[in-house]
Task: inverse folding
């Protein structure tokens, strides 16, 4: 059987199998090309065959395998739309670089080069995480060694914040029912329901925007929540009031952008992406005279604070129904204190009054004894 390209079941990578007809008694070849695109695999096959024939007839040592480049690793990887955007910014710096020569220090130093005025937190999210995911995915395919990249130190974070004149890790102000009602008074029905839906279900905006009419089972007051952040698709219960309002909402397709490749599925809320929401969201906040609480703060953070602080639901229940991996993550990232100063002043006053009362009672007791 002459050399041919095949794709094995469950794999996007092209493989070579067969014998080289030009070589007498050729060994049978079974080999991965490491390429996901057929055109690239065909180029690799021609190179491999040429090197084998050259080695056999000329007695030369075959040339080394071409180095495994970062671009090759990206071809093996199927990024989310979010990661795809980040990788586009990274590619000009790493595209033609062998993965074996990419070091953790090199990756961290790309942050100030690619986006000098962003925070170290953004560098980690948009540069370190995608690069690490691509290389470690290639390692799973046996193409390279894995990579471990530590984040930026607290000193590096503070230095960068000073440079850009803006503090990172700013605590979000979570949503509450009053804020949701005021927002809905100024928003159109669709955007207002989107805000309330995220607040009541702890949905991320990417999940809410991905919901289709087929994901709703309103007779059971249930929505099939799309997967996100390592959580599989999950059925989430809706309040009766929210289910009734969603049943009256007509799904729609996102607006046309003019791109011939645009995908326009029928969606519950009708927005193609979060960028389609943000500008309108801020305008509604301004019209309502309320502070800018963006979707994640108003929704998922609002759900956590509402359940933990205001309704006193036990943390394990909140973590389970809000789809947090554990209680520690819920508290560390989404736990927000409210009215801190008033609570401290009240606690100080209470402690002082209790002490004075005990001293008064003790004095009365001594007086009676004497």
Result:
């Amino acid at each position: 059987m002459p050399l041919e390209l095949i794709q094995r079941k469950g794999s996007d990578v092209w493989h070579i199998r067969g014998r080289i007809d030009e070589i007498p008694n050729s060994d049978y070849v079974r080999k991965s090309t490491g390429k996901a695109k057929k055109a690239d695999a065909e180029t690799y096959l021609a190179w491999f065959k040429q090197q084998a024939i050259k080695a056999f007839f000329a007695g030369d040592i075959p040339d080394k395998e071409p180095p495994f480049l970062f671009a090759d690793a990206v071809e093996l990887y199927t990024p989310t739309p979010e990661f795809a955007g980040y990788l586009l910014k990274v590619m000009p710096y790493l595209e033609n670089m062998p993965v074996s020569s990419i070091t953790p220090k090199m990756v961290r130093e790309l942050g100030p080069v690619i986006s000098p005025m962003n925070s170290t937190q953004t560098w980690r999210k948009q540069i370190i995480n995608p690069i690490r995911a691509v290389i470690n995915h290639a390692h799973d395919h046996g193409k390279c060694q894995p990579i471990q990249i530590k984040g930026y130190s607290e000193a590096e974070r503070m230095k960068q914040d000073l440079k850009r004149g803006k503090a990172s890790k700013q605590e979000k102000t979570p949503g509450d029912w009053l804020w949701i009602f005021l927002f809905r008074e100024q928003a159109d029905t669709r955007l207002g329901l989107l805000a309330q839906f995220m607040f009541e279900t702890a949905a991320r905006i990417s999940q809410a925007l991905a919901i289709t009419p087929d994901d709703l089972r309103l007779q059971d007051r249930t929505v099939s929540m799309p997967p996100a952040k390592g959580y599989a698709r999950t059925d989430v219960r809706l309040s009766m009031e929210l289910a009734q309002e969603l049943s009256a909402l007509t799904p729609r397709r996102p607006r046309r952008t003019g791109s011939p490749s645009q995908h326009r599925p029928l969606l519950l809320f009708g927005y193609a992406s979060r960028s389609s929401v943000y500008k309108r969201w801020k305008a509604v906040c301004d019209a309502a005279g309320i502070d800018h609480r963006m979707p994640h703060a108003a929704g998922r953070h609002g759900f956590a604070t509402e359940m933990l602080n205001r309704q006193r639901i036990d943390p394990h229940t909140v973590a389970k129904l809000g789809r947090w991996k554990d209680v520690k993550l819920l508290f560390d990232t989404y736990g927000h204190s409210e009215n801190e100063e008033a609570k401290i002043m009240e606690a100080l006053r209470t402690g002082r009054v209790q002490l004075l009362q005990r001293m008064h009672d003790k004095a009365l007791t001594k007086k009676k004894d004497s």
